[in-house]
């Protein structure tokens, strides 16, 4: 006759030795939770920085943008135009 081993008997116990995980509330907004949102942070940071650099380069020729943004930003102070007025086409 077939006699089960202790390992087989332990697998079919009514109460296992493994602790049961208690369900915990995870905050969410719709189907978006914190773990899902954290996956997008690197991509959003990259595209935001790239978009900001593109706008800065594209608008660097506009005088209002130069005086209001570039000259007041310590890092971008090298955008100051030192060309004499007689050499400017406008």
Automatic annotation (TrEMBL):
The chain crosses the membrane at residues 44-65. InterPro entries: Cytochrome_b-c1_su10_fun. It comes from the Eukaryota. Keywords: Membrane, Transmembrane, Transmembrane helix. One of its GO terms (cellular component) is mitochondrion. One of its GO terms (biological process) is mitochondrial electron transport, ubiquinol to cytochrome c. Pfam families: QCR10. This is Ubiquinol-cytochrome-c reductase complex subunit(QCR10).
């Amino acid at each position: 006759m077939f006699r089960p081993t202790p390992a087989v008997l332990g697998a079919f116990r009514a109460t296992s030795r493994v602790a049961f995980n208690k369900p915990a509330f995870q905050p969410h907004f719709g189907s978006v939770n914190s773990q899902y949102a954290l996956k997008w942070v690197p991509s959003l940071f990259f595209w935001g920085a790239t978009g900001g650099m593109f706008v800065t380069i594209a608008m660097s020729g506009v005088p209002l943008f130069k005086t209001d943004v570039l000259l007041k930003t310590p890092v971008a102070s090298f955008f100051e135009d030192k060309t004499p007025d007689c050499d400017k086409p406008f």
